[in-house]
Amino acid sequence: MESIRVLHENVVMDMGGIENLLMNIYRKLLLEPQLLILEEPTKGLDAGFKIKFAEILEQLLKREVTIIMVSHDIEFCASFAHKCALFFDGNIVTTNTPNKFFSGNNFYTTVANRMTRQVFENAITCEDVIRLCKANEK
């Protein structure tokens, strides 16, 4: 959790969006929770900070912290979630792995899936599309 430790040395008044997000998570982690619930944690973050945030989430998972994240960031969820669910009218109406969830969904899906579903069956991220394009070059 080196990236969070570095934040501790910063002056709180000088912190921006990602630093505030990470500092809030750091404060919660001081209590050593087994469950972390996050609401729209990637809102306002650029792609580079989203990757750093995903790395921190992976570190937490290695420490066996359960993470529940509510997000409209479909691309982030497709890339980093282990399980996705759709809530409608107060109920969970479907749940699955990101690949099955987004490749089998016409409305709630990723840009990569919308663009390539006629060519590649289960591409849900840009990385999936690149990998499949390279595989088909051979």
- The helix-strand sequence is HHEHEHEEHHH
Number of helices: 7
- Determine the strand fraction and express it as a percent band: 15-25%
Q: Please give the number of β-strands.
A: 4
Q: SS-based structural class?
A: alpha+beta
User: What shape does the CA trace take?
Assistant: globular
Give me the side-by-side strand order of the main sheet. 1-2
Low-pLDDT parts are: 4-13
What summary fits the major beta sheet?
Answer: 2 strands, parallel
Residue-averaged pLDDT: 85
Give the N-to-C terminal Cα separation: 41 Å
What is the helix fraction of residues, given as a range?
A: 40-55%
Radius of gyration: 17 Å
Account of the protein in words:
With 138 residues, this protein is of the alpha+beta class. The chain has seven helices and four strands; from the N terminus they run H-H-E-H-E-H-E-E-H-H-H. The strands form two sheets. A two-stranded parallel sheet has the order 1-2. Strands 3-4 form a two-stranded antiparallel sheet. Helix 1 crosses helix 2. It is globular and about 50 Å long. The termini are far apart.
Short structural description:
The chain is α+β, with helices and mostly antiparallel strands.
Detail the topology: elements first, then pairings:
Elements: H1 2-8, H2 17-29, E1 35-39, H3 47-62, E2 66-70, H4 74-80, E3 84-88, E4 91-96, H5 98-103, H6 111-116, H7 126-137
Parallel strand pairs: 1-2
Antiparallel strand pairs: 3-4
Helix pairs in contact: 1-2
